[in-house]
Amino acid sequence: VSSAEYVKAEIDAGRPCMVGFAAGEGSYSTIEGHMTMCFGYIQTSSYCMLVLGDGHQTYDVYRVWNPAYNDCVISIVIS
Question: Which residue, among 28, 39, 29, has the nearest Cα to 78 in the 3D structure?
Answer without folding.
Answer: 39
